[in-house]
Design a protein that fits this description.
Elements lengths: L15 E5 L2 E4 L4 E4 L2 H4 L8 H11 L12 H12 L5 E5 L2 H18 L7 E5 L8 H7 L2 H4 L9 E4 L4 H7 L4 E6 L13 H14 L2 E5 L24 E4 L10 E5 L1 H4 L15 H14 L4 H22 L4 E7 L2 E6 L5 H10 L2 E2 L1 E3 L3 E4 L7 H19 L1
Parallel strand pairs: 3-13, 5-6, 5-7, 7-8, 8-9
Antiparallel strand pairs: 1-2, 2-3, 4-10, 9-10, 11-12, 12-15, 14-15
Helix pairs in contact: 2-10, 3-10, 11-13, 12-13
């Protein structure tokens, strides 16, 4: 008899019992090198001692309050975010989709409070993925995710990814914001060049729009800086949605805004029962501290540069299979040629003890824990080498 679950997932016949560092283990103690880390979530790997200790300590004291009462951990983490980023205000959520929803509401509320309620439309891009809620799938615009869920939600204008002139042409008097992932994850691990991010910032400034970044997957140190847009230096957003890696494996997200935007989100405009609960905040504070420890990002950049070099060599050896290497930092992908299926490559890798994912545009995606070493990367490259050879046959 099948498990009484909705058939929304198709996992392999594989059950993991525990995780340690960058590896997962089955009940019979077979080890797998984890280069997907819960889809870019386990930033510090599995069972990080400080995160585990913080969670256990908090669990012994208090699990849940709701936001009817103050949660000191929220204030502590919000200060860390705002003191080190563009942001002045923070709203905590449980997931990336919720962070995106909060971002969209904050943008519309901003213009409502300015006496411009007609400005509500949001420009988005092909290949985007912003979550699975109704608003988020309409923002993403993927027909496969929209099918069967009624008419399209009005208010989103989708533009071809990377087409600056088309983006400019799409701006009307009803446009409120531009929403973009600095590095697309589900859409095929495509990084928007820094010059394009700066161009979007300039476009928003010119037309009085808000710039919203979805850094749910590419944030939290994934690219070698705390937030991916920081590589572009002068392309700071007005609003940013984050999740995944910021909780290190505990469900957690946040919407970060400037003071101008955040001050409009007053009592009654938004809320969450579980968002920012004491358990999440205990872990979130540890994750932030570990990511921002001296030298941490230097190690991330060192190993990611090594990994990209090795992937380039792999692509050269398998030029009939791999079209290009994509990504930024430790969010990487191999764009495969027509006839080679990314899920098949992921299956071949899994059979050999390496866990990777499959993203859009026929990309084999990798998002390992940020604590991997060059030895881990070399082991992964060796397995990928064999997996590509097998897939090519």
């Amino acid at each position: 008899m099948a498990a009484p679950l909705m058939s929304t997932y198709a996992p392999p016949d594989l059950v993991f019992e525990r995780g340690e560092g960058v590896r997962l283990y089955t009940g019979d103690n077979k080890a797998y090198l984890d280069f997907i880390s819960g889809i870019a979530v386990n930033a510090l790997g599995h069972g990080h001692p400080k995160a585990v200790a913080a969670l256990k300590a908090q669990a012994d004291k208090l699990w849940h309050l709701s936001n009817m009462f103050k949660v000191p951990g929220q204030v502590e983490l919000a200060k860390k975010y705002t003191e080190t980023s563009f942001a002045d205000r923070v709203f905590f959520t449980n997931s990336g989709a919720e962070a995106v929803e909060a971002s969209l509401k904050a943008a519309r509320r901003y213009f409502y409070d300015k006496g411009e309620p007609h400005r509500y439309r949001v420009i988005t891009f092909t290949g985007a993925f912003h979550g699975r809620t109704y608003g988020a799938i309409n923002a993403g615009g993927n027909p496969a995710y929209l099918k069967g869920f009624g008419p399209r939600m009005e208010g989103f204008d989708q533009i071809e990814f990377g087409d600056h002139e088309a983006t400019k042409a799409a701006i009307t008097e009803e446009t409120a914001a531009i929403l973009v992932e600095p590095v697309q994850g589900e859409g095929g691990v495509r990084a928007l060049p820094d010059v394009c991010l700066r161009g979007l910032r300039e476009l928003c400034d010119e037309h009085g729009l808000l710039l919203i970044y979805d850094e749910v997957q590419c944030g939290a140190g994934r690219t070698g800086k705390m937030w991916a847009h920081e590589w572009a230096e002068t392309a700071q957003p007005d609003i940013m949605a984050v999740a995944k890696g910021v909780g290190g494996g505990f469900p957690m997200g946040a919407c970060l805004t400037t003071e101008a935007v955040g001050k409009g989100m007053v009592v009654g405009t938004h809320g969450s029962t579980f968002g920012g609960n004491p358990l999440a905040m205990a872990v979130g504070n540890v994750v932030f501290d570990e990511l921002n420890a001296p030298g941490f990002f230097d190690k991330v950049n060192q190993v990611s540069n090594f990994m990209h070099q090795q992937l380039a060599g792999l692509a050269d050896r398998h030029e009939g299979i791999v079209e290009e290497v994509r990504g930024k930092g430790l969010l990487m992908g191999l764009k495969l040629r027509e006839g080679i299926v990314n899920k098949a490559v992921a299956g071949e890798a899994r059979d050999r003890g390496l866990l990777i994912g499959a993203a859009g545009d026929n990309v084999a995606r990798m998002a390992p824990p940020l604590i991997i070493t060059e030895d881990d990367a070399s082991e992964a490259i060796g397995i990928l080498d064999d997996a590509l050879t097998a897939a090519g046959k």
